[in-house]
Amino acid sequence: MTAALLELAGVTRRFGALAAADDLSFQVMPGEIHALIGPNGAGKTTACALISGEIMTDAGRILFDGRDVGALGVVTRARRGLVRAYQIVALFPSLTAIETIEVGLLAPTRAVWRPFAARARDRDLTARAAVVLARFGLDPTDRRPAAVLSHGERRRLEIALAVAQRPRLLLLDEPLAGLGPDESAAMVETIRALARETTILMVEHDMEAVFALADRVTVLVAGHAIASGSPDAIRADPKVIAAYLGEDEA
Ligand SMILES: Nc1ncnc2c1ncn2[C@@H]1O[C@H](COP(=O)(O)OP(=O)(O)OP(=O)(O)O)[C@@H](O)[C@H]1O
């Protein structure tokens, strides 16, 4: 039997009286696109933040490649290959797209803390960053700061930055949010292509995209995973229909 790449076992995280993660357990297998779905407030974003290390668990274990990463911070988890895509604008608003990716390429080497010295030593850096940008349909010669890129361009840059860090597990929180139909379709294709080189765990509200992309789906309700399975099994699961998917038809 293949070992899980990521395993949450009995993870709980409280905010005051509310358990945003409540005895949460599920597994992400190597090579799959795994979607985390659930109603608003189910705890999907909290689960992402717990997995990436932005917030810590109150109880339970998070295993990445068989090792407990629950006590490690964001940077250490990212260096091990557990990388979340962030809203770029909040991080590097004044950098251009290519500078943003250069930082991402340096991050796994720790050189991010002294980027200018490292840049002088790594003459390939700009060329490598250009290759990453091109994969995401972004222009390496674009001198605009990230803050003024269009919403769709920023989403692509956000994922490109995460990919530059060579993730073994890429965490995507609502990659299609705010995208128009054409941009969404392009992003679905991008995610499918990324899945050839990295395992993907994504939170997504767009059910059509989830069922088109995901190999397996986990359904969260009130911080707890009520089901994990193939898209077909999830769609047919009476617990899921009652708790979530049935909502639309109610
Ligand atoms: N930092 C926080 N402090 C207090 N409560 C929080 C905090 N973060 C999340 N919560 C609460 O935890 C619950 C789960 O929130 P979370 O954002 O993880 O859900 P979600 O499934 O991602 O929701 P959505 O689909 O609306 O994005 C919600 O009730 C939310 O109000």
Automatic annotation (TrEMBL):
Instruction: Tell me the Gene Ontology biological-process terms attached to this UniProt entry.
Output: D-alanine transmembrane transport; L-alanine transport; L-isoleucine import across plasma membrane; L-valine import across plasma membrane
Protein keywords: ATP-binding, Nucleotide-binding, Plasmid, Transport
Query: What is the species listed in this Swiss-Prot or TrEMBL entry?
Result: Tistrella mobilis (strain KA081020-065)
Name of the protein = ABC transporter ATP-binding protein
InterPro entries named among the record's database cross-references: AAA+_ATPase, ABC_AA/LPS_Transport, ABC_transporter-like_ATP-bd, ABC_transporter-like_CS, BCA_ABC_TP_C, P-loop_NTPase
Could you tell me one molecular function GO term of this UniProt entry?
L-phenylalanine transmembrane transporter activity
Gene Ontology cellular-component terms listed = plasma membrane
Origin superkingdom: Bacteria
- Domain named ABC transporter is located at 6-247
Database matches in PROSITE patterns:
ABC_TRANSPORTER_1, ABC_TRANSPORTER_2
